[in-house]
Amino acid sequence: MDESIQTKIEAAAFRQLLRHLGEHTEVQNIDLMNLAGFCRNCLSKWYRSAATEQGVEITDLDARQAIYGMPYEDWKALHQK
Fold first, then answer.
1. b/e per residue, 51-78, with b = 16+ CB within 10 A?
2. What is the C-alpha to C-alpha distance for residues 58 and 23, in angstroms, rounded to an integer?
3. Please, are residues 67 and 43 in contact by the beta-carbon 8 Å criterion?
4. Helix H segments across 1-81?
5. Cα–Cα separations (whole angstroms), residue 66 to 14, 15, 18
6. What pLDDT, in 10s, does the model give residues 35-52?
7. Distance of alpha carbon 52 from alpha carbon 47, whole angstroms
8. pTM of the full predicted structure?
């Protein structure tokens, strides 16, 4: 498979994962961590790390906003139990 096509497929799958998590806010991070070994915060750390590897510096808060779809504090107030 061509590397650019693979990257597009992986990016589309990642966006779908974010949409899915965004639609299922009832699933708490602790539930994800217990069942899957990762949570939204892990994804934000991986996102920031990937950005850094590409020479793009972003803050933890910006990375979390990219994953949560809103500021992290807003998400916690709305959805965290």
1. eeeeeeebeeeebbbebbeeebeebeee
2. 25
3. yes
4. 3-23, 29-36, 40-53, 60-68, 72-79
5. 12, 10, 9
6. 999 999 999 999 999 999
7. 9
8. 0.90
57 vs 7: CA distance, rounded Å = 21
Q: Is the pLDDT of residue 4 over 90?
A: yes
Q: Can you state the angle between helices 3-23 and 60-68, rounded to 10 degrees?
A: 80
Give the pLDDT of residue 69: 95
Q: Which CATH architecture has domain 3-79?
A: Orthogonal Bundle (1.10)
pLDDT band at 81 (very low <50, low <70, confident <90, very high): confident
Structure tokens at 63: 């990375």
Cα 4–chain centre separation: 22
